[in-house]
Amino acid sequence: MIKKAILFLGKKTASFFYFTGGINKLALEAFYLTFKPPFKEKPFIEQCRKVGVDSLPIVSMVAFFIGVILALQTAYQMQRLGSEMYIASIVAVSIVRELGPIITALVVAGRVGAAITAELGSMNVTEQIDALETLAANPVKYLVVPRFLALSIMLPLLTLYADAIGIFGGWLICVNKLSISSGMYTHITFNTLLFKDLFTGLAKTVFFGMIIAFVSCYEGFNVQGGAEGVGRATRHSVVNSFILIIAFDCFFTAFFYFIFP
Amino acid sequence: MEFGKTKLEFKLGLFVLFGIIILTAFILLIGDFKSLGVRYKVNCVFNFVNGIKIGAPVRFAGVDVGEVKALDFMFIPEENKTKIKVGCLIERQLKIPADSKIWVNTLGLLGEKYIEIIPGSDYANFIPPNGSIAGKDPVAMEEVGEMARNIALEFRDTLAKIKNGEGTIGRLFYDDALYKELEDLVSDIKLHPWKLFFKGKEKPVSKSK
Amino acid sequence: MDMIELRNISKSFESHKVLDDLTLHVKRGSTFVVIGRSGCGKSVLLKHIEGLLKPEAGEIFVDGKSILSMPDADMNSLRMKMGMVFQGGALFDSLTVGENVGFSLIEYSSLTKDQIHGRVEESLKLVGLSGIQELTPSELSGGMRKRVALARAICTNPDIILYDEPTTGVDPITADAINDLIRGLHDKLRVTSIVVTHDMKSAYKIADRIGMLYQGKLIAEGSPEEIQNSGNPFVHQFINGLAQGPITDDIKRTL
Questions:
Q1: What are the φ/ψ torsions at residue B53 (nearest 5 degrees)?
Q2: A137 contacts on C by Cβ (under 8 Å)
Q3: Are B63 and B110 part of one and the same domain?
Q4: What is the pLDDT of residues C91-150, one digit of tens each?
Q5: Would you say residue A215 lies in a domain?
Q6: A-chain residues within 8 Å CB-CB of B1?
Q7: How many Cβ contacts (< 8 angstroms) between chains A and C?
Q8: Listed residues B137, B169, B186: the one ending a domain
Q9: How confident is chain A (261 residues) per 10-residue block, as mean pLDDT?
């Protein structure tokens, strides 16, 4: 029993090291190959559309609801203290610094990351990745690099949309339901926000994009055993992306808190 | 290979363009309220600033007109004293009379510190850009405490004197003679109320001789 | 001189030994057919020659050069001279048939669009298909996919072609057409081929030499006649497709 538990733990630890090692190797290779010719625009543009344009409706929707929820929840607390003026600043700072980036990253991880793993997984199962190699095309260069670039460039852009729409959601509630004037809301919002808030929020998302790209590609490359394997890899991809995104977010928040107070 | 021909590229272009517009809007809106406005600098010299911070607002007649940008120490040889120079950025169009009163005030329940400027009346002279003005020192909490202690001590001494029957009030409180005389007077008046109507017939007791 | 040479190759997947000290020589311009039961490591053997898998022990020489210690750039130029036909076709779903066939040319060559188009057309004609460049692989039948994969492999005019079960899962007429094609490439272009199959009719038709893979080793090797008349009981059972024999006895023993 105890022996079994120790063996189990050992196996899990080992698989964790394999995972981190594999992700890092993939990341290094992708970085290296990004700057190595030939450069192909078509797959990159295709991935940009999948990550950016196609994710916009769902990211907007989620961001809007988060803005509305945040305004209402803050109002509940602030009305007791009689300081509704602070709702605008709390909504703005929470969305721009934290909720915009993390919501966008999680939505994209669930939507695009899962799709990437499923796609690469099926390619792996049907030997298409082997075929790429036999045709002298590096699978990392051909498949990972465009996805990684698209994700790390499109995610900050999507976050900007999410920020704007989230603030708009808060504005809608405050102006229509909490009788705060529109001018007052925008004034407080942009008076409270600092460049630091905007840029730390956006900088994080570049890393989130990389996490999603590398985790989903890694899981896709490591699919074993047909359709069931693809399903399992997709699940792992989403779960691992979520965990890593939130862990890194915690790290970045602490980092920015102590480095740029 | 052709570019800029497909619907895909059109959509992506639109997406990126709008993203950049949002970014620009954010930057301009944030910047508008922060640093892009034309401003000039005024140095306020204080002995004591009660924990004001860089970024604290500056208010002129109760209106936010700028913020604290710099905090420096300054040794003044004439007074042989180190003072604090608070650099404030003020909106360009605002003219501050040279005899304005400047001090560090505390805002609201959160206790945020800010620079309060109450305009003076000398509208012939203004503080020039990069000019200096001496600020009134805010009362430090320790001084307030000291003062309160002194008041309390004095009050205790007074109370002690009163208790001991010293001074007018002390005598009033603790000297029974006065009370007895008053009682006698009242009972006398009760017995002989007409006495009130006589005037000068009986010579006043106290003033006799 | 040997075009492909494998020396003492061993490979195992999680303690299951797939290739065990295997040695194989293929002469330039000849067709070597590897026969064996499903799952005995025939595809693994091909993937080693393409450099997709690395052996745990042994050496692999292609055209006189060891591919195990080869830099990536050299390996890629070597791969341009090799073509591989995968079992399921392995066509790229996201590309059209034309883009699939011309993949290497579009990616690496400096040919013009028209030249590439001509080469693609030519390759597709060779496998008996034409006018399907704009279709996607999902619109093709299994047999057509296999032929498109074959067209993709021959599009770059390779010196070596590796076939992974080229006739499995296609109708007998198409299978014979593929056999003719492999034979034709061998006769006209002096292409060196390794064909992995368990279709004995196909093997006799195309092979210069046949080798039988069993338990990670090449247990028999020879010309088609030699194999047909082999005294080896394992070979005898396999080529005659008998349910009773030493191979099935081995499985019963291990069970």
A1: -120, 160
A2: 103-104, 107
A3: yes
A4: 888 888 888 888 888 877 778 888 888 888 888 888 888 888 888 888 888 788 888 888
A5: yes
A6: 41-42
A7: 51
A8: B137
A9: 89 88 90 84 88 93 95 88 82 93 95 94 90 87 92 94 94 86 84 87 94 94 88 94 95 88 70
The DSSP string of chain B is ---S-SHHHHHHHHHHHHHHHHHHHHHHHHHHHHT-S-EEEEEEEES--SS--TT-EEEETTEEEEEEEEEEEEEETTTTEEEEEEEEEEETT---BTT-EEEEEEETTTTEEEEEEE--S-TT-BPPTT-EEEPPPPPPHHHHHHHHHHHHHHHHHHHHHHHTT-HHHHHHHH-HHHHHHHHHHHHHHHH-GGGGG--SSSPPTTT--
Q: Work out the minimum CA distance from A130 to partner chain B, whole angstroms.
A: 27
Phi, psi of B172 (to 5 degrees): -60, -40
Same domain, B59 and B109: yes
CB contact burial A47-57 (16+ within 10 A = b; e otherwise)? bbbbbbbebbe
Give the nearest chain A residue to C85 (CA atoms). Answer: A131
Residue B120 resides in a domain: yes
In a domain, residue C19? The reply is yes
Which residue out of C79, C140, C145 would a mutagenesis test of the A interface target, given it has the greatest number of A Cβ atoms within 10 Å?
Answer: C79
C244 to chain A, minimum CA–CA distance in Å?
Answer: 31
Task: State the virtual CA torsion across B104, B109, B111, B114 in degrees, nearest 10.
Answer: -40
What does each C-alpha distance from A93 to A90, A209, B146, B202 come to in angstroms?
Answer: 5, 22, 42, 90
Same domain for B85 and B70:
yes
d(Cα A167, Cα A94) in Å, to the nearest integer?
Answer: 10
Tell me the pTM. Answer: 0.75
Q: Is A10 inside any structural domain?
A: no
CA dist C167 and C173 (Å) reads: 10
First CA to last CA across chain C, in angstroms? Answer: 43
Which chain C residues touch A128 with a CB distance below 8 Å? Answer: 90-93
ipTM of the complex: 0.84
Q: B4 pLDDT exceeds 60?
A: no
Residue B71, judged by CB atoms within 10 A of its CB (0-12, 13-18, 19+), counts as middle
Distance, in Å, from the CA atom of C111 to the CA atom of C157, rounded to the nearest integer, reads: 14
Residues paired with B89 in a beta bridge: B41, B67
Strand order of the β-sheet with C217-222 is C82-85, C160-164, C192-197, C31-35, C209-214, C217-222
Give the span between the Cα atoms of C149 and C97, in whole angstroms: 9
- Of C146, C147, C141, C144, nearest in space to C123 by CA: C147
Does any domain span residue C20?
yes
How far is residue B58's CA from residue A78's CA, in Å, rounded to a whole number?
26
Q: Which two tokens stand for residue C151?
A: 């067209």
B37: tokens are 């406005």
Which stretches of chain C are assigned E, i.e. beta strand? 2-13, 16-27, 31-35, 57-62, 65-66, 82-85, 160-164, 192-197, 209-214, 217-222
- The CATH number covering residue C74 comes to 3.40.50.300
- Six token digits for residue B113: 């510190």
List, in order, residues 6 or more apart from B7 with CB less than 8 Å away: none
Dihedral pair phi/psi, residue C70, rounded to 5°: -90, 140
The total number of structural domains in chain A stands at 1
Whether residue C122 lies inside any domain: the answer is: no
Do residues C47 and C5 lie in contact, with contact meaning Cβ atoms separated by under 8 Å? no
Domain limits for position B123: 39-137
Q: Do the domain assignments include residue A234?
A: yes
